Amino acid sequence: MSAVPAVRATCETGQTGTYHYTLFKHSYDSKAQDITPTMPDGGTLAGKPITAGRLQSIAQQWADQYQAEDQWHRCPISRLPDALLSLSDEYCRDVAAYYDRAPAWTGDASLMHGYDRLKEENLRLYHRIRAEGIVIEPWLGGDQPYQNSAQLRADVRRTGRLRVFLTAHGHGPRSGTRRHPLRELSGVRAGSVEFRHNDLFRAVHDIFGHVMLEAGFGVKGEFLAAFCQLQMYPREVHSVVFTEQVGQICWFFRGPHLMRPDGSLPRSGQPGYVPPHSRPYPEQKVFAFPTRFLDAFISAFQLTRSSDD
Questions:
Q1: Is residue 117 one of the residues assigned to a domain?
Q2: Are 222 and 67 in contact (CB under 8 A)?
Q3: 159 domain-assigned
Q4: Rounded to an integer, what distance in angstroms lies between the CA atom of residue 117 and that of residue 276?
Q5: Engineered SS bond to 118: which of 3, 9, 144, 237, CB 3.0-4.6 Å?
Q6: Is residue 19 part of a domain?
Q7: What are phi and psi of 227, to 5 degrees?
Q8: Residue 165 contacts by C-beta under 8 Å, 6 or more apart in sequence?
Q9: Kind of pairing between the strands at 161-165 and 185-190
Q10: Cα–Cα distance between 135 and 162 in angstroms, integer?
Q11: Sheet with 20-22, side-by-side order of all strands
């Protein structure tokens, strides 16, 4: 594994790095249940269409409350869609390899507190989304509800409804006999379905990542969505978000199971290539990466200069 330098979290302007590319142009009662309204025939009522600008306003308000709490420097949400990312492919492979080798469970008290806080934040954000009139609907059809990110964005913006691919239908295998914290039921129901905490996490990720930022479903888009969630969440859950999102994204796209014996990654059309729809989900693990990985990820995002700079 290559050494990844530890750095202070910053959001600077400019363009540096191995390679870079532009990425696509409060209180809550945990025992309460949110019931998504349904039509008499069982269909879901349409939600209220929403704009990316309105979502950015909500996300900025969310980030501001934690800026005051933990004093961790955050990037302006409105400038994230034009952020530049400088990360080497080797970094992604290193993260994937570390995830692959990591123990299945190292859930000490501090880490479990982080998961509990993450669940609380996702519940609060879910209710904030619902307060805007957006309906979160469990997807009960086959395959995935959206073929690509553009289809997801268009559907949500037009109908105010997000269809969530349920954890029960697609999630990596759990490790040993322990239940992953995000697999627990959330107390939030939509018709006959009770969402798991991971379902709410997916909904928040989709709304504030793929819809708000127009981030795609590839590595770059998923990284941008994860980076945005780091801005919105308190610092104490960042290591959990990194493992759950960046760690699993890297394993899915650059994991050892996809490599040739010589360590190279087959491309589409080449022997040994596994298309995304045929790849397994990563094993669901509970552990924290060394901080150098998270620090390098955060420092890799840079904001382009605006006309006001």
A1: yes
A2: no
A3: yes
A4: 31
A5: 237
A6: no
A7: -65, -40
A8: 139, 144, 145, 202
A9: unpaired
A10: 6
A11: 20-22, 84-86, 301-302
Q: Can you tell me the distance from the alpha carbon of 224 to that of 222, in angstroms, rounded to the nearest whole number? A: 5
Contact call for residues 23 and 214 (beta carbons, < 8 A): no
CA distance 197 to 150: 25
Q: Tokens representing 302?
A: 């840079």
Confirm whether 241 is domain-assigned.
yes
Residue 43 belongs to domain spanning: 30-302
Domains contained in the chain, number: 1
Q: CA-based diameter of the chain, in Å?
A: 59
pLDDT in tens, the chain (309 residues): 433 323 323 343 333 333 333 333 233 333 334 444 443 333 445 689 999 999 999 999 999 999 988 989 999 999 999 999 999 999 999 999 999 999 999 979 999 999 999 999 999 999 999 999 999 999 998 889 999 999 999 999 999 999 999 998 876 666 555 789 999 999 999 999 999 999 999 999 999 999 999 999 999 999 999 999 999 999 999 999 999 999 999 999 999 999 999 999 999 999 999 999 899 999 999 999 999 999 999 999 998 754 443
The enclosing H or E element of 193 equals strand 193-196
Token pair listed for 185: 């039921």
